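Researcher: Please predict.
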Amino acid sequence: MPRSVTRTLRVDEDLDKAIASRASKERVSVNFLVNRSLRKFIEWEIPILELGMVVVPKLLLDRLSGDKDEKKFAEYGREVARDFLKPATQYVVGEYTVASAIEVLRRSSLYSARFSFDFDEGHDSRKQVLVVRHDQGRLWSSYFAGLLDETFGVLLGNDVKVEYTDSLCIAQLAPVSRLAGK
């Protein structure tokens, strides 16, 4: 856990009330809420704006995906891996490795609220498993499958096996020893 630093700052009275109200609703301290908000701003909002990412309503995403198929969505995922995730990872973390790609996917999951992302090295450390959960249907599962396969299989050169259902995408990566240094 990072060392804590005490800092005094001034906020507008209406902002202070809004922060206190939100903290009370979430049953967390004001300090926790402010730290979480600042971390999101620094780790996510600034970089994604600088990289040209925008917030899009789910309704619009649903309408835009209406006449597409799983193959097309998987290709969208591959394009995003090549043209956005790789450069975004290099920009945000400073390098493009398995670990840094996992970190950017973790942040995206944490801050975007479109999907949840879990990473498990396995109990015997012989495999790495990436899990994407969402409620957006099979087309989006094929998108995530394309994104994970392109990211870890093609761009990072690892053996990867990807499977998906309507609300889940699972990627199994090569054993940890084979991932060292990549």
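Model: Residues 176-182 have pLDDT under 50 and may be disordered.
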